[in-house]
């Protein structure tokens, strides 16, 4: 029946123009189902229309999870192994996908929907589906039988910084600092592992950019959709089957410089394009932002050196460019507590130069993701009873602290290891960037 519905939709598209079948609505699919001659009730027609649309134009049996609110990733390891991330970690679900050939056919069809080729000669594909979902798939001989499919769902809602604070991703004590970084045009690098929320935080920061500024976003696959009135998205293009027509990230960064940008944003530093980004940030384009994969703020220098080496830059050149072009690193992590996984802003680091080590990033603040307790209070230091260095018990006592009133920084009380913790560079960070 699906083959008949597909043929009718193709014929209908041919009658109305070449692009008419690119994304048919449910009405067109329902009409094609009625034309099959089957007698269907209203409820059955709705269900069959939804199923047919998913099978022909969507992700088949996986579509229900892509449409489910809160789902971030759908992963297929084989015909009988499907995992879903609803924001609290991966959970296994039962989905009837058929055999290995059915899984491979699904992967090939999804790749074709994204304008890419997936077969034995080209067994790995990255593509963006018409609804914005990001697809990565591999087939044999890269994997075993069938295919391995990874789907990253495009967010339908863009979160603001206030949302991230309310949800516990960003500690409230750090909100004024983050707002100050944007307002004072700091150049920021957002780091973290896969799925830690780098793009989400980046979009939230871009929403704080004044509306009269022009933002040019460079990405390999478009994910950024900040709540801002003047955003120019540029997306890299892979070569076609003849190996021609590619436009890489480095090309796009150079193009962005000629577009009169107020802010240049690179969705992810992952190769030689880091050279162009560092050069842009050193030529009057302050206030830029980018993301990078890293385990910790203190390993950022090594990551930048490794990526810049692909562009022929030596360690001294990377250090000189990074110190002049980057100001702050924001690092995100996934933390597990109470049986659920949360994404949190775990560290803030200041980028500095060192005559001996070259480039370094000093920790200004760190957070384990735990909310503050009664032993913590904003702008109050912990002083032991009986004097600064004596007494068996530490209690919170209000004393003057060198922190601007606008930044309610939590300071630890003895016996409590929770809440944001100040690092050696905190006072410099607040003094320079907080609003």
From TrEMBL:
<dbReference type="InterPro" id="IPR001482">
    <property type="entry name" value="T2SS/T4SS_dom"/>
</dbReference>
<dbReference type="InterPro" id="IPR027417">
    <property type="entry name" value="P-loop_NTPase"/>
</dbReference>
<comment type="similarity">
    <text>Belongs to the GSP E family.</text>
</comment>
<protein>
    <submittedName>
        <fullName>TadA family conjugal transfer-associated ATPase</fullName>
    </submittedName>
</protein>
<dbReference type="InterPro" id="IPR050921">
    <property type="entry name" value="T4SS_GSP_E_ATPase"/>
</dbReference>
<dbReference type="InterPro" id="IPR022399">
    <property type="entry name" value="TadA-like_ATPase"/>
</dbReference>
<feature type="domain" description="Bacterial type II secretion system protein E">
    <location>
        <begin position="59"/>
        <end position="314"/>
    </location>
</feature>
<dbReference type="GO" id="GO:0016887">
    <property type="term" value="F:ATP hydrolysis activity"/>
</dbReference>
<dbReference type="Pfam" id="PF00437">
    <property type="entry name" value="T2SSE"/>
</dbReference>
